């Protein structure tokens, strides 16, 4: 992959509500639940509207089994910075494109406590390499001009993951 | 349990967002995911605010491992009326109290497609018997006057479950 | 549905391993996880082998999106009798057919602590109405003679669900 | 963290059964379900027996809310190499210790198709940084000599994660 040529620093903010069922027996959001939240943020950020809903300008995909197109995760990296308690207000999942390849993108994320209550707590940082795949053949398909056009305003450098301990 | 003495017919409407991860390999919301949605509706309907959020008047419990009080499910019954596809807008989960016992309540539910788009589709009907339990001793505890007072405006007859086939 | 004509009382015993992730913040197997365990027991009891594995004689279905056949849950009822802790040994899920309809069956279950350690604890009782559906048309399909033949040795009366409190 | 001083190359083999519910609407094991499988492999590899079960020699922890000790995931990295279909036989999850810190370890994994059927397919590679935490104070606690002694036979170099595309 080549790095994004331009970097506006713009981020998509996707509000995703926790569920009490995301907690595990330690009474914190489970490490795998956090990736479920990222998955839902991607779906809401990238999949087009099917029922006339208002969607972000990045929502240009027609995936799902009937859409002809799959988004496969090739690789994922996540760093948990603080335990996440259950709360009603949706988390503020911020995401952007940290790399564009021929048939894949790298998505960077920062997961924050709910927007509106300052200061926000940064709960996690993550990166996913997402590959576009043709549902019928299982082969990667090239990013279209529509995708690049819709996504490039949200290009930025990859989230910095540090060693914390 | 005795039937609710009065029956206002009022229902709580709890909007609960689907996640794409609720679907199973048949591309519909999985039968167990539907019960996860009901669980989240109960939490949002009955648990008190912890961060100053706006909550319904029925939200009088202080549960969770630290709250001293558990809500245990003793029994559950659910009828699936139509397959539920993924969509962004939250489902309209309607719930009410169909019976009050000494230390338990029966909650009735109807799960509808998102509010606002008429006509709504009825996806499922369900009932749960929920028992209040002391977290330390594991014994049932009696419903308090506060609970009865907060919940009785939403008393009504049990949801009618029919044989569909 | 008509009741099963004959009742041998035979039960299938399906061992299903818990996962620590089935627990919720109360440190017990979550009420919805229990239905996940029943789902897995059905899959292992009814779906045919795809890789030459040894399977029970009841495993005659070819479902899954590619199998042309779906098993839809129309209705489910479950009673939780005791909290289930995490443990390594698989639960002993016992199931049988409590009713045969034209295109559906009712499955009854009792969920026990692991086989081998007597006395076993009965954790839950449940019943599911499962409808066979053609994947292409979405219409119910009739039970075949092969299904009836494979399943009738495991016919028995419906599990008795009692009011516990 | 310092690299493991010695490297025997020994791996723990933890058989973990899939569930059909691990699949998503694309009919493959979901990317987050794979991490659920790794979580269960860790629990079975590291947690001591509570009911006299046979456990590996690495099972020296007493975690869980009552055990006084939590295993928190600080960081996780996973690479998905091939889609995983549902199958009955348990996956062969191989894991070892790729680094020992003062209060943490890095666990490396390779997830293979079921043992016994050669050649095995490598489905995923992953690494987790796991921190031991005191449940009461929430502070990291130092690895004990017992842990180091039990785990060092399974020390080895970190799994090599490559860029696949």
Describe this structure in words.
The structure is a homotetramer of 165-residue chains. Chain A has one domain: Hotdog Thioesterase (Thiol Ester Dehydrase, Chain A). Chain A has helices at residues 31-46, 145-151; strands spanning 12-16, 69-80, 91-100, 104-112, 122-134. In chain A, strands 1-3-4-5-2 form a five-stranded antiparallel sheet. The radius of gyration of chain A is 16 Å and the shape is globular. The first copy, chain A, has 165 residues and is an alpha+beta fold. Chain A has two helices and five strands. The two termini of chain A are 30 Å apart. The longest helix of chain A has 16 residues, at 31-46. In chain A, a hairpin with a 3-residue loop joins strand 3 and strand 4. Chains in contact: A-B, A-C, A-D, B-C, B-D, C-D.
The greatest interface between two protein chains, and residues involved on each side, is: A-D, 32 and 34 residues
**Shape call of chain A:** globular
Looking at CATH, the homologous superfamily of chain A is Hotdog Thioesterase
Number of domains of chain A: 1
Report the CATH C-level class of chain A: Alpha Beta
Oligomer: homotetramer
> What is the helical fraction of chain A, as a range of percent?
10-25%
N to C succession of SSEs of chain A: EHEEEEH
């Amino acid at each position: 992959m080549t790095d994004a040529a331009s970097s506006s620093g713009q981020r998509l903010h996707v509000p995703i509500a926790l569920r009490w069922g995301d907690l595990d027996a330690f009474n914190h959001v489970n490490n795998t639940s956090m990736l479920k939240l990222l998955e839902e943020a991607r779906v809401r950020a990238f999949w087009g509207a099917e029922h006339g809903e208002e969607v972000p300008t990045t929502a240009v995909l027609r995936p799902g089994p009937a859409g002809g197109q799959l988004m496969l995760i090739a690789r994922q990296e996540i760093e948990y910075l603080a335990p996440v308690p259950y709360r009603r207000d949706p988390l503020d999942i911020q995401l952007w494109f940290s790399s564009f390849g021929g048939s894949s993108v790298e998505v960077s994320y920062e997961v924050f406590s709910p927007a509106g209550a300052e200061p926000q707590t940064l709960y996690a940082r993550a990166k996913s390499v997402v590959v576009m795949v043709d549902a019928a053949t299982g082969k990667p398909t090239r990013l279209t001009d529509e995708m690049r056009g819709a996504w490039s305003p949200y290009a930025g450098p990859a989230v910095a993951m540090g060693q914390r301990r």
